[in-house]
Design goal:
There is one protein chain. This protein is mainly beta. Helices cover 0% and strands 51% of the residues. The strands form 2 sheets. Strands 2, 4, 5, 6, 9, 10 and 11 form a 7-stranded mixed beta sheet that branches. The radius of gyration is 13 Å and the shape is globular.
């Protein structure tokens, strides 16, 4: 059974940085796409970034150039480095692998 646990969220000032982690368990994920999504209050969940198992990455245009998705297959862990955070980035961030969702980690961007 696939389980995902996100961590690393918190309160950060505009312009600051955070690094999110998603620890995956239940199988080997090296041949699996792994993605980040987010849901802001009152909004639909939206795609943030995906790490393809062949090494490709794809980003939501709103975060491109500021966020970096990466993975450590040996640790079954997905990361999201978020730089130059904006208030609009405030949301609950979710990891998604094989149609399984984690519980989310909240990011608040405020001065």
């Amino acid at each position: 059974q696939v389980q995902l646990v996100e961590s690393g969220g918190g309160l950060v000032q505009p312009g600051g940085s955070l690094r999110l982690s998603c620890a995956a368990s239940g199988r080997n994920f090296s041949a699996t796409n792994m993605a980040w999504y987010r849901r802001a209050p009152g909004k639909e969940r939206e795609f943030v970034a995906v790490s393809g198992y062949l090494g490709t990455t794809l980003y939501n245009q709103a975060v491109k150039g500021r966020f970096t998705i990466s993975r450590d297959n040996a640790k079954n862990t997905l990361y999201l480095q978020m730089n130059r955070l904006e208030r609009e980035d405030g949301a609950t961030y979710y990891c998604n692998v094989l149609k399984v969702w984690g519980q989310g980690t909240q990011v608040t961007v405020s001065s």
